[in-house]
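Hello Y.,

Per our agreement to keep a running log of every chain we model this quarter, I'm adding this entry. I've kept the format consistent with earlier entries: sequence first, then predicted structure.
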Amino acid sequence: MKVYELIKKLLEKGLVEHSESPWASPIVIVLKKNGVDIRMCIDYRIVNTFIKLSNYPLPLIDDLLIGFESAMWFMSLDMASGFWAIRMTERAKLISAFVCPFGHFQWVRMPFGLKNAPLVYQAVINNCLWGFVRLPPEEEADVDQDVLDFLQLECPGGGVTEEKVPALTDTMTVFQRNISTPSHMGPVLGRSSYIDDIAHGAVSWDQLCEDLNKLLFRLRCWNISVSLLKSEFGK
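Predicted structure for the entry above:
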């Protein structure tokens, strides 16, 4: 019954869809720590043997710690179901297909378990933090003015339209937005992210709050959410 409710919820939120893919990975149900809720894991071991490993590098932990020795205040942000922020290509959807007692489904958003999923998400987060958020001119006008101010971007036409558009991830993949950043735009926090976790330190509380505001605006522009329950501030 819990599996049925979980699949139903994923379908309603548009995270999965019915599939006719020749692939069909099995599922494994794991009980969460609270002893009540379940987590649906998909066994992609066979699928992963056919996937070519991406050459995109994960950062070294030692490199991420550079600069923390002078910090007095710290924060750690955990992305909420971060992989789901990335849309799957049509070919990737077929590979992600899984089977359960209630049918054959495939992912619309990137799932956990596929070999290159962490590398793809790391690339997205790096682009987000390093300033690759310059949007096409016709889209910049639809971004809230406060976001443009924080990112130091100029809105074409001199203002922001009142009409609101759907989330950008509904109409395009994140890779279509990787437009070269202008030279004056630097990183928000430097390279302090590891997959779906972002750590940052500051010399003062005020600086930490200022950096947090900049980071949240940047994540907002990329439609990436933060899990407050799993994040820590001011440690």
